[in-house]
Amino acid sequence: MDSYFGLKKNGSTVSTEVIAGISSFLATSYIIIVNPSVLSQTGMPFTGVLTATVIVSFFSSVMMGLYARNPILVAPGMGLNAFFTFSVVFGLNVSWQVALGAVFWSGIVFFLLSVFNIRTHIVKAIPRPLRYAVSAGIGLFITMIGLSNAKFIVPNPATLVSLGPITPALLTFVAGLFVTAILVMRNVKGGILLGIFFTTLAAYPIGRLWGVGTDVLISWKGLFAAPDFSLLFQLDLVNSLSWAVLPVIFAFVFTDMFDSLSTFVGIAEAANLLDKQGEPLNIKRSLLTDAVSTTLAGLVGSSPGTAYIESAVGVEAGGRTGLTAVVAGLLFLPFLFLAPLLSIVPGIATAPALVLVGVFMIRPVVKIDWMKLDDAIPCFIAMVLIPFTYSITHGITWGFLSWTILKFASGKKEEISPALLIIDIFIILALVIG
Fold first, then answer.
1. 411 contacts: CB under 8 Å, gap ≥ 6
2. What is the chain's Cα-based Rg?
3. Beta bridge partners of 160
4. Sign of CA dihedral 340, 39, 331, 280
5. DSSP E strands: which ranges in 312-409?
6. 330-377: per-residue pLDDT in tens?
7. Please, where are the H alpha helices in 40-190?
8. Residue 209: enclosing H or E segment and its boundaries?
9. Tens digits of per-residue pLDDT, 295-319?
10. 111 phi and psi, to 5 degrees?
11. CA distances from 232 to 38, 130, 423 (A)
12. Which run of H or of E encompasses 152?
């Protein structure tokens, strides 16, 4: 195991990787319930999507660990499932079978781009300062997700967001945040995982012993639920290749590609998971894994698979090798039968981990030369737009465009690679189509 995953080489151990895998799984496991809740609005059976979600998450994460040997989980992506439901099925008035076909064909396009190393060239086209900015932006994004899950920040029509009302759940989140922070600060092994367990236990009395009248956050909803394989191979491969659906395939390709690329780059920069050339480790194999995940998603009945930014929770817990992803992937498999168990861990229990991961992810921002404005402005735009638009793709695309424009304006055309110019053209096309 050490020779295969390179544990000693990466300064890790089996126990550290196992703890990291569990931490990543707990931070990502919400997708098992959330993805079906979104996609079932199209008429797809909830239990069928749940089964598909587990299959995609299990197979893709294990493949990432064994084949690409990176500690990054792959699962059906949030945002992509909303696009599938609201923009494709409802917006274009196509059937979910046709939408699944579009997911499958987008996966084939991913695969071809990866096999011919085009996606790797795209990674290399990202200027290094923008990579640092994307890492920091993803950190802010993850923190925002954690604060939102805990209702620490809530929507406000006057100020867009504001501090949420003081509730037993919010106080429990704050307690969990400080306990987790102290454990991490003191370098306690498995501190993030212990913080999740602590917050889960602290949440049990809510609605029972205190905060009576409010919702009970932790309740037993059963143990066993039989898997539903009714969505397997229900995609429409023929009609999904019609002219009307081709823009959908392009949108899936573009969005998933930049979500995955930015996640790989951001986590690699923050965790120093880089090769001798300063590129993310095993990037071609990682992108091939992502392509296979999307293709598989179309076959089994889910929106596209993508690399998960919550993988940073496991990386912060010490995960440095593919063993982390393998452990997390294996933990998905029992939930083909045990999905109700996930209700035991509430959102406020994983929220502290997500907030603290922001500290870890934002570290590379100090490598940006903030006095060099033609670097600083595009980096700042990319960094802030990721959380402010709630989209990694929007942040990195506008970062690309602003980098190109400002480098042209400052007479530094040599800092704009031909690959970046090609990417800019596709970005503009995507913006027009969108």
1. none
2. 21
3. 156
4. negative
5. none
6. 999 998 988 777 667 787 888 888 888 788 778 888 889 999 999 999
7. 46-63, 80-82, 96-115, 118-125, 128-149, 168-185
8. none
9. 999 999 999 998 887 888 899 888 9
10. -60, -45
11. 18, 40, 35
12. none
Tokens of 178: 């400080």
Packing angle, helices 392-409 and 246-271, rounded to 10? 80
* Nearest one of 430, 367, 365 to 400, comparing CA atoms: 430
Structure tokens at 377: 């402005």
On the 0-12 / 13-18 / 19+ scale of CB atoms within 10 A, 324 is buried
Structure-token pair, residue 54: 């587990």
**Amino acid code (one letter) for 371:** M
Tens of pLDDT, residue by residue over 91-150, are 778 899 999 999 999 999 989 988 887 766 777 777 889 888 887 887 888 788 889 889
Residue carrying structure tokens 């959330």? 34
| Residue 61 structure tokens | 């994460």
**Structure-derived torsion over alpha carbons of residues 162, 167, 171, 177, reported in degrees to the nearest 10:** -50
- In angstroms, rounded to a whole number, what is the distance separating the alpha carbons of residues 406 and 52? 44
Strand partners, 348: none
Which residue is listed with tokens 């949108």? 251
How many helices (H) and strands (E) the chain has is answered by 18, 4
Q: What is the pLDDT of residues 193-248, one digit of tens each?
A: 788 889 989 998 888 877 666 777 777 777 788 899 999 999 999 999 988 788 78
Using the CB atoms, write b or e for 221-251: b if 16+ within 10 Å.
eeeebebbeebeebbbbeebeeeebebbbbb
Tokens 């809530």, residue? 154
